[in-house]
Amino acid sequence: MKNLKIALTKGRLEKGAVEIFEKVGIDCSVLKDKGRKLIFHQDEYNLDFFLAKANDVVTYVEHGVADLGIVGKDTLMEVGGSYYEVVDLKIGKCKFVVAAKGDTNLYSGYNHKKIATKYPEVARRHFASKGMDVEIIKIEGSVELAPILGLADAIVDIMETGTTLKENGLVVLEEVCPISARIIANVASLKMKKAEMERLINKVQNYVDGGKEE
To answer: Is pTM beyond 0.70 here?
Structure first.
């Protein structure tokens, strides 16, 4: 059986992915007592797991260092890349939204609108699709601060429950699209390791679709 290398996004998606793998019969105990190790080998299925930041997961899969990666659709929409998106895991569910202070009239008037976001490509494409020429301001930290402090008219950000927006006096003006965690695959690996990858992908897809645990 050929070795498969799987890159997991650190944190919440890692935990959710491990739960799914265990549901389909893959022992992930090596990932639960990590210590300072960086790569974790699973003997039965000949898997190597390693943890990375979301953007790096995409990079590793693109370059073939990882055969498979688990990463949020938000990252895929922002960074693009060359890979196959093979399974929607239906975990880490949230949505992209446009939000602003309650009295903001974002879609009328001729003044130039400013949009703050951690996802400039997503924001740019969204407003371009509406025929709006906006100025995109990249923010790394708490993007909710931008409209409060007057840096931007509105934000494009991920919303799970809406609590943070509400607590900061912001309201959702528009939902852009839903997002969730995805499995992505290296293009060459799908040909070179077809049997091993399909075995794993089909197990996971069957579980996600509501099939019986194996």
So the answer is: yes
